[in-house]
Design goal:
6 helices; single chain; 15% strand; Rossmann fold; alpha/beta
Length: 165
């Protein structure tokens, strides 16, 4: 059995995420999706939804056999635990395949690294980016400075612990 891992923030799930996970599933027999913790998301604005909710949404997709929360401190901990044959990166993820392969080799994790295909919008106004969804909501509903509302639950230590359930 070929075990595949896909990983990402998966904030505000959209058709681009679904495409990525469906494409990743074609690389093997079993797809595990790792949902990044807020503490690991340093390359873009922090997620709007808490990690547990994002994990539950990803787990509901047919292409995903199991969804996992990432480790809050070391992104490779769930990779070591799952021991995949293939890691499939999203087509627009900031990760460098060679860098990931080197980090895996340094930890004696023997798996190949692939890049998923992209997806074009299928109709006018279809959004394939969480950032674009946020921008549209702010344009249509106000709060364009992004400061309204509260931050996600997985910033608080006691709330973070509840995400392990």
């Amino acid at each position: 059995m070929t075990r595949v891992v896909a990983q990402g923030t998966f904030d505000l799930l959209h058709p681009g995420h679904v495409h990525y996970l469906e494409d990743a599933a074609t690389y093997g027999d079993e797809l595990h999706a790792i949902v990044a913790r807020r503490t690991n998301v340093t390359h873009k604005p922090e997620p709007i939804l808490c990690a547990r909710q994002r994990r539950d949404m990803v787990a509901a997709l047919d292409a995903v056999d199991e969804a996992h929360l990432g480790d809050p401190e070391d992104v490779f901990v769930p990779i070591e635990r799952l021991d995949p044959d293939v890691i499939v990166l999203g087509y627009d993820q900031h990760h460098d395949e060679a860098g990931i392969a080197e980090a895996l080799a340094a930890r004696d994790i023997d798996c190949r690294v692939e890049r998923a295909s992209g997806r074009e919008p299928r109709y006018e106004a279809e959004l394939l980016s969480s950032g674009d969804i946020v921008d549209r909501v702010l344009r249509r509903r106000g709060g364009s400075d992004g400061t309204e509302g509260s931050h996600g639950a997985d910033d608080a230590g006691s709330r973070e612990a509840s995400e392990h359930r």
